[in-house]
Request: fold
Amino acid sequence: MYPIATANPTTGGVTFTSIPQTFTHLQLRIFSRSSSGSAGQSISGSFNSDSGSNYAYHVLGGDGGSTFSSSAATQTNVYFGWSAGTTNTSNAFSNCIVDILDYANTNKYKTVKTLTGIDSNGSGLVGMWISLWMSTAAITSILLNPNNFATGSTVQLYGIKTA
Amino acid sequence: MSVFLQPIQTVTVGSGFPAIINFSNIPSTYTDLLILYSAKTTATASNWDSMYLIFNTDSSQTYNSATAMFGNGSSASSNRDTNTMGGFASSNASGGTNTFGSNSIYIANYAGSNYKSIITEAAPEINSSTALPSLISGLCRQTAAITTLQIGSTSGSGLFSGSIFSLYGILRQGI
Reply:
């Protein structure tokens, strides 16, 4: 597992460009708080600057009192889990571990698997997001959370090789 | 440079739609194992298929049990299975030519003499309301070190060319 890039945004989003094609899998590790919006807002993004209706997602989650699931097809964003928001406890951030397998394979759509959670001392979310980017293009750039990362957030991109 | 995940073996599925893939001669020098796979089966019965794991060629599955939580896009639920280490949702042929699911299987303390615990994450996403994100924890009540692993489709369906299974060892301090 090899570190490719780290971002420490103080505002706005994060974009990783020129992602090397020399790995088999990618992993994002996101430590996130938003400067706007409520608790538990989703972290949206895109691959290769594609803003078309080429994404879909499903969610499996729990909020400490009940479980839930939701989905949407033909979306204009990929999703990478939940972020803490302005109504969460101060200094609380979410965690997201995002796997993007076979990201450079030009015969496959790209399936994204995220384990994510945020606890806020009295409320919280834990769950899994899965997303699909309906493109066979190799992923060369990733945009995350346009417009609203708060100071203290970090996003790390890793490459994973195979034997 | 890599200090955490060490690649051990990779199986890339070619032609012929094999029903099962094998990892053998797994070294006992790590603490845990991780399998990452991007795969699709030839089944068409629903929008996903189910995969299973076999330890040390013990296909009887008698010693295995699993607890699952999954969501179908409108509600979440949980169940338990005995005599299996399976139920890992995976993409199948109904998702279209280019759609492959993404899954991970973490196997803790695989070389120790305790029972073997696993946790899996499954992402068989398609552009539809029906997919099945799922989390499964499993227990294999066997004390032997794991030296071989097999993964196959519960339906007995084959694996599509381009499916890739990557086995990693998690390093411990001192290696």
